Structure formats: structure tokens, C-alpha cells
User: What shape does this take?
Amino acid sequence: MKYLNNILSITIIILIIVLVTIGLISAIGSDVTKAITGFFWGIFGSFYGLSEVLVRATPLILAGLGVAIGFRTGFFNIGAEGQIYMGAIAATVIGLEFPNLPPFILIPLVILGGFLLGGFWAVIPGFLKARFGLSEIINTIMFNYIAINIVGILVRTSLKDPNYPLPMSPELPENMYLQQLLYPTRLHIGFIIALVASLLIYVLMWKMVAGFKMRAVGLNPRGSKCSGISVYKNILLASLISGGLAGVAGVSEIAGLHYRLLEGISPGFGYIAIIVALLGRNHPVGVVFAAIGIAALQVGSITMQVQSGVPTSISWIIMGLLVLLILARRTVSSVNSDQKEEATL
Amino acid sequence: MTTIHMPLLSMQHIDKFFFGKPANNDISLEVRAGEIHALLGENGAGKSTLMNILFGIYSLDGGTIYLKGKEVKFFSPREAIKSGIGMVHQHFMLVPTLTVSENITLGIKSTGHPLPDRKKINDNIRQLSHKYGLDVDPCALVSKLSVGEEQRVEIIKLLYRDVELLILDEPTAVLTPQEIERFFSVLKRLKEEGHSIILITHRIPEAMAISDRVTVLRNGTRIATVNTTETNKEELSRLMIGRNLKPIVRGARAKATEKDNPRLDVKELDYLEYGQGKLQKVSFSLYPGEILGIAGVDGNGQKELAECILGLRKATQGTISLNGVRIEKSSVAERKKLGLAYVSDDQHHDGLVMDMNLVENYLLRVHTYKDYIKNGLIDYQACSRVTEEAISAYNIKAPGINAPVRLLSGGNQQKLILARELTGNPSVIVALKPTRGLDIGAVEFVQKQLIERRNEGCSVLLISVDLEEILMLSDRIGVMNRGRVIEILDNNEGIDLAHIGLMMTGHTFEEKS
Assistant: This one.
């Protein structure tokens, strides 16, 4: 019964998505078959396409994990975008300061620095929430603007590359580059780091007392207090880890792809991370799959644009629709299970 | 039918299934015009489900409903109200930021719509409240009302809509003894005016005191309908839980231990909230092997006292010692480590995490114990084992240890909390209204557990608004009024109930002021 419902609702969602996609493509006046073949060819048609999906998924997994932990603890972190930039700043500064450290020291140092600065950027709203009850949703959004504009200032002033007229930092030392995995694709070791992070987060949240406490606080703060679990400490801890992971996403983008700090290194990864966490049900495994799925959607839509002239914006429309439908589905099924609660044992 | 009265309401062979599980199984119920009909049963017996079907909240899976001889079917509460049936839910449905009068007229077009004539409406409301003895000020904000007043507003709301048949879901659960008295006289008044009332309850004395007839439900089926005058408490209890209730025997205290060091020593405790003294100079000592009952009308500082001892609130002044250690500045976790256990009436907020399973809820206490941690990871095997043991030792009915606790009934949830809090043999148990809202079986169980622990030498601070419970369980009794513990008496045969009653209303016997 429940399975049937699940299958049915998922089928309906897929059907709606397909219909809307076809509708949109034909509205633009493009050839639907060509566009859709282009989409799938972009993902599966070449080794490069597949690798590109994983490249895109890397920051989404890391930031998505961060958002998911925040959600689990009741800290609604909408600020992953800003935390990514803070992580990128930390990586750049450390890289430029210590260009001669060997990679096995510099890379962990850069990751740690990104984690701490990204974490710090989330701990401030976390503290304001835990201590004074201020909305972390508003504060993390505001912190996004601050972080993004700090990057804007830095790449024009103290971190600017004197040899170029454009606002960007000098190229970073090779010692901090994240190893390429499958040359000539852009896939780098950051993807492995993201997978390891998911595993660690899984162990932390479901196998360790610290994670148990965070989840308890997220589900019932008052009950946790009554059991001697500090809501204050756990929100601080969750915000640190949450922002820290987003910070590492920023490090991975800088040290794995761009090799320098510039504006716009994150095309909204921090916001997509929220969708990733949502689709992945705030679970590390779900987050990995959701991140890869969304990355595929974006990569496919780029090829689609090249081959059939359908703008990539369509992938954003589909993504928005998908979230809406999935939320609607959960609400509908939770309305059904309300009745189930009446039949208590 | 040869009855002289034609039944006002007749529900015939009602069936209702939730996911294949019967919640109502072939239940028939008849309510005569002008009677108070008690619907008696334990939690989960199907009382509320049956009434929700009548009120149009649930659809029925089988059976028919006749109102004044005509078949009816309601698809929403709105239709039910139109036909003269109204329901007051256990949890009130009022908008706190609106006034009483605005709440009452919410959703109906009153005189002068769309610019209602508030003055006239208020007059009407005053007339109604006067007629039935339901005192409440129409202009007051609902957020400023006491629970008893909110309930009166809910009833007026129905009367204002000309409801003939009132369904009241556990109406006395939130009331103090004095308010219950008053509430019963309102019910009598309503009956005199020709209203019929269905009273959903699990309290037998209540059904005996006020109803004309009683229908007993058990496990979703109707067991019997009896005239109240032709039955007694024992019969009702047999019908309701399927066996006789054995009175709890407290027995003498293990030994005279007054000379022992107190387990819990509270001295001159003050607690201020928004400039209001919620606790004032509260002092008492709790000795090993005794139950100290704190009686009093709800809202006189009981919750604040319990939470200051637990550490959820920090006392403004005064000292608390637990086993000789000063704890007034310690965290909740530290206090629990020193041997404190806490059971309250609010399983949803205080005791459990509803979306976690039984094992994880057990972990809420044992996560600080080394036995349940292996190599830095939670030893789920050990946790599952101890949870399984608790389930069988406390006879907790659950679909499994991995089911979320929200699926358990209130009684089973409380048993789980009790089992959990009593692991590690705490030396002091703070129990704040531990049996409120539970079914008889669970109440009995919780009370027996407290006695058993006391016999084993544990100290129990029992804070309750149920005076009978206090008298039955306590070795000594203190009374709280307006944040003070007035006097602590030994509980023996000769205890003066009138004296306690007076203290509950704030009367002090040596007027010092």
C-alpha cells in the first residue's frame, strides 16, 4: 500500500516534469527530441560529460552536507554561499602566505583554514540564535552579502594580482593544488574529499553521541534540555560544522579548479546546497545522490543549449518545479499519516 | 424502540479503520434529549475517534448516524454545528491575540456584518454567560485567560451558535478541583435548559458524579451502556479496564530516617520571572526512603519549583543541595549525574523526542554512561538490549524498539520515560504531575513504581494537583500557594483535609505578614 503510493507519486512527479519540460522546449520553438537527446548526451555521451557531473557535484556535496547538519540540529543555514566564499578567502590567503610548504602539509592546512573561516562565518549567526534567539535565517542571508562583497574588495585591493587589470588574486602556488584524478578531465581529489566527508558526517550523526545530541536538539530542544543536553552548545557546534563544510567546498573550488580567487567562483552553489539537503532528506547518502543528480541536470542542460539552442535557464525552472513537487508530495503524505497517528497503540 | 424519549442522536454500528486497524468496531450509541451521557474508556479506547466521526472530522467506514430520527452525514464540523452539534476539544482552539468576544464570533456573520456591532454582541455574550454561570469578560484578551476561563469561552462559543448537543472531550483534565465543581454546575444548568451533553472521560468518579447514563468503550468496541444510578464505581472500572482496580497500599516507611542527612535540601529558594516572584522562600528537606507530596492548585509555582531543582531555570536566590552537594549553579547534566531523575506530565515536550525511536529515546539518559559507548561510538547493541529489558520489565506496548515513540499511547510513553529515568538508580526522583492525562492502568503503574522506589530507599518529590494521589502516596505533605510552600505535615490517618484545603487557597494559620 505504502510502496504503491510511493511509486505512484514519484511517477506522477516524473510525468509532470517531463510534460513541463516538453512544453517549455516547444514554447521556445526548439526541436524537443533534439533537445532531450542533447541533454542526455551531455551527461552520458562522453567520459568528459560524466566527469564534469562529478566536478559540479563536489561543492554541492560538501555544502549540502553542511546545510543538512544544520537542518538536523534546528539551525537553518541559508548562508552556505557566503561560507563557501569565506573558505575560498582562507585558502587563498594561506596559499599566498606559505607558498613553499610541501603539499602534504599545505593542503591539510588550507582545508583546515577554510573549514575554520567558513565555520566562523556560520558560528556568528549560530551564537546569535542560541544566545539571543535571533533568526539565523535572516542573519545567514545577510552574511552572504557581506562575504561576497568582502571577496569583491579583496580581489581589487590587498589580494589583487598586480600583473593583471582584472579583479582577481595572483595564481596560487602549485603545492596547494588538489590532485587531478583522471587527466585530462577536470575531476580532482576534492570529489574524494567530499565522499569521505559524507562518510564522516554519517558516522558523526548516527554513530556518535555528539551527533545524537545534535539530532535530539533539532527534534526537541526542550526535551533535550530536560535530559541534560545543552541546546546552546549543540547549536554552536552544528553551525561550526555546517559552515565549515561549506568553507571546505570553497577551498575545493579554489584549489581544485580555479587556482586563484575571483568573484563568482560559486554560481549559487550555496543556495543549490539547500535544495540538495532537502532532496537528500538531510542524510549524507541522500545528499551525495541529490548533489550528483542536480549536477547532472546542470551539465546536461549546458549541452542542450549548445546543441539545440534551449537556454540553460530551463534547468533552473525544472529544479524549482522539482523541489515544489517533492515538498508537495511530502505534505500530502504527511496529511495521510496524521490519521495514522490516531490509531495509537 | 419502546423508549418514551425518542433519542436525539443515534449512532448505529459505526466502524472506523486506520490503516486496516479498527479504531471503532461496530459501536452504537444513543443520546436522549436533555441527558448528560458519559462516554467512558481508557486512552485509545476509541472515544475521541467516535466523536470526531460525529463532528464531521473523520469520515465513517461503516454504520449510520441519525439525528432526531433523520439520517445525517457530516463532511465538516461546519455542517455538524449547523445541525446543532458542537464539540469542545481537549486542546482548545482559540486565537490568543483576539478578545473573547472576537473568538466567539469568529467565522460567523454577526449583526452589522461586515462591521459587527461589538457592543450588542458583547451584551448577548454577557446574557449567555449569566444564564449558564459561565463568567467571562467578553472584552478580555484570550491570551490573558486562565485555562478554566478558556474552556468557558469554548462552551459559550457553541451556545452562541445555538448548539443543542455539546460534545466535551476530557473537559476536566485541565481544571483544578474547585474549577471542576463549578464546571459541573454549569453542566447541570445546561441540562436544565434542555441541552444534551456527551462527556468524554476516563475518570470514573466524574462519570458517576455528573452523568445520567454511561457508555463504556474498550479497545474500539462498546462494552455496555448503563444508567448511572444503577451502577457503581467498581462495576464501571470492571467494564472499562476488564478487571478490578486494587487500591494502592503505601505501607509504613522502611525506617525512621529523619535523622539521616537529607537527599535533597532546598533552602530559601526564590525565583523571579519578569519581576514576578514565582517562588518565594521555598524551603524543605527530602529524606531517604520517603515520598514528599506537594499539593496545591495548578499554577502556584509547582512547575517553577520542579524546573529550578532540575536546572532548567536558575533560582534567583537560595540554595539547593543534592546528596550534600550544592547544585543551584550546576547544569542539568551535572545534576542528573549526581542522581537526579525527572518525570513530568509533558511527555511530548519534556520527556521524549517524538520522532526518535525507543532506543534513541533511551539514549537520552544513558548517553552519558560509559557502558553504552564503545570505541567512541554508540553501542547500539547494548542500548537495544537495555531498551528491550525495559519494555518487558515495564510491560510497554510498542510495535518494536525501532518504532518512533509517537506511535505509543500516552501511558506507554510515560512508562518508557519512567524506565529510562530510573536506570542508574537515581537517589532523588522529581515527579511533576507524573500521572496527568494517563489511563487508569498507567496511573496505577506509575504510582506503584514510585512507592516501590521509595521502599528501596529512593527519595521522591511528588508534585501533583491531584490531592487524592498526594494523600495516597505521600509520607509527608506540603502545600504550595502563590510560590510558597506553606506547611509540611505528616500524612497519617488523622490528617486534617479541611486544613489542607484552606492552605491550598492561601490561608496561613499563623498570620505573620
